[in-house]
Design a protein that fits this description.
Length: about 400
Amino acid sequence: MTTEEFDAELEMGNTMLDGSGYHGRLLDLDMHIQPSPDTYEIAAGEVGIQFANMLRQMKDQVPPDQQKRVTSLIADETSVFTDETVWTMKGAVAPGAFTADGRLKLLDRMGVARALILADPGIMALTFADNELGVRTMRHWNRFVLAYIETDPVRLRAAALLNTHDIDVAIDEAERMLKAGCRAFVLPSANPPGKLSPAHPAMDRLWRMIEEANATAVLHAGGEMGFMSSYDWANGVEHLNFSPTDITSECEQINIFNFTALQYAPQNFLTTIVLGGVFDRFPNLRFGMFELGAGWLGPTAEKLDQINTIYRRRLSDVLSMKPSEYIERNVRVTPYRFEPVADYVDRHGLADCYCYSSDFPHPEGGTEPLREFSTRIDRLGESYAERFFVTNGEWLLPNAA
């Protein structure tokens, strides 16, 4: 189905599925906490102050015709919960954008049973920096997360951030957070932890802790910064290289080239831990990859199966299954709402890997994610819709606290 055909389907409402049948059981694997300028410091400390000042300056500098739209995105969250506000309002002003109590009301309106709730990619990127500010931001955000999940740690699976430049620091932080009840961790994908492979035995303690706690390890957009030696590939080509300051965008707020390259670092990270035997040593390790698209997953699995065949003797003592089988068992991804998920399943299988997400409250998540995703998986039928909207995500969001 072309983009034009898809848009026509939405306009006419010609889809058998609409997602409404899963109301109350939906699992949303990628939501975000979105502070306003008045609350950024609460969530992210020094880095939060930087973001708050940036947003205030942006509001003052945008053309008059954009002032209203920008203001509507960065004001404090509304207390109005209707079907319209929960789906169409975006940014910090959206209902439940920042507060835990508000998020629970939002989940009820959206029909979401449990949600994985993350920082915004900007906070992630600065948390993962190789400096003391990154470590301080990690600890500040994680204290905020613990207060957030006190409201309902089962439904609100807010994720901690782990700065892995020092593996011991990351492991100590993960241990502290697990003891306090956190059950999800976002790791950077750009840098080898402690300048070692993520499949190195030094990381096994972290993987074991996450596995034994039925917690979830996550890679997300925002963790890829620094993977490429240069970000100048779009320079001098105006239509590829625009400044990511338009917060009113309805798609990812980065330049076109970077949007196509988001998955490179996470793809490399996944390749390393699969071939490095991490999922063989830790068969119940729950691993999610979000807001990175999904079209790359099948070809990657196919390529790794080829590598496994070529290096069969070297890998035979490390891998007891094909790489693609580890991926289907252990890994879950969230497609963008415009991706042809049914085509991916037809081409490469991996039907258990694809999961629903709304990207709330970011504008790029759209206003009708249930309907849009339903159209993308419609021809696979109701049985697959049940998997996509509910059961596939249970691997990353198990019902137990």
